[in-house]
Specification:
Layout lengths: L1 H7 L15 H5 L1 H6 L7 H6 L4 H23 L5 H26 L9 H5 L4
Helix pairs in contact: 5-6
Length: 124
């Protein structure tokens, strides 16, 4: 899926290849893709740009990331062990959010670790 997605948006498959120009879809919807990783704002690209595969891809990743963040918050209700697990999960979500934003800025559609398999099964 990653190779197919990268080809769809004119991105190189390997890091040693020259960078291809961004597709028109990625250029036009880069801001919405960035917004997709900012909590509940992930709904904006999902609702406004149904015709953009780039915005939809990042919107779905942002939605799954938001759900993971909510689950981590619920886990933190449990004293001691929940606090530790929840804190680690929140930190992981923050790192994934930053990675997602960096990929969106570059115009790439690369699946985030750990949540990518859930994004594939999400049909909106």
């Amino acid at each position: 899926m990653e190779e197919q997605t990268n080809q769809q948006f004119n991105q190189p498959e390997k890091s040693n290849e020259p960078v291809q120009p961004l597709s028109d879809d990625a250029k036009e919807n880069k801001v919405l893709a960035i917004i997709a990783y900012l909590g509940i704002l992930c709904l904006i690209p999902l609702l406004l740009k149904k015709d953009s595969p780039f915005a939809q891809f990042h919107g779905k990743q942002g939605l799954v990331l938001l759900l993971a963040w909510i689950v981590a918050s619920v886990v933190m209700i449990v004293p001691i062990l929940g606090w530790l697990v929840g804190a680690v999960a929140h930190l992981a979500c923050l790192v994934l959010m930053i990675v997602g934003i960096v990929h969106a800025v570059k115009g790439e559609a690369i699946e985030l670790p750990w949540i990518g398999k859930y994004v594939k099964s999400l049909n909106l």
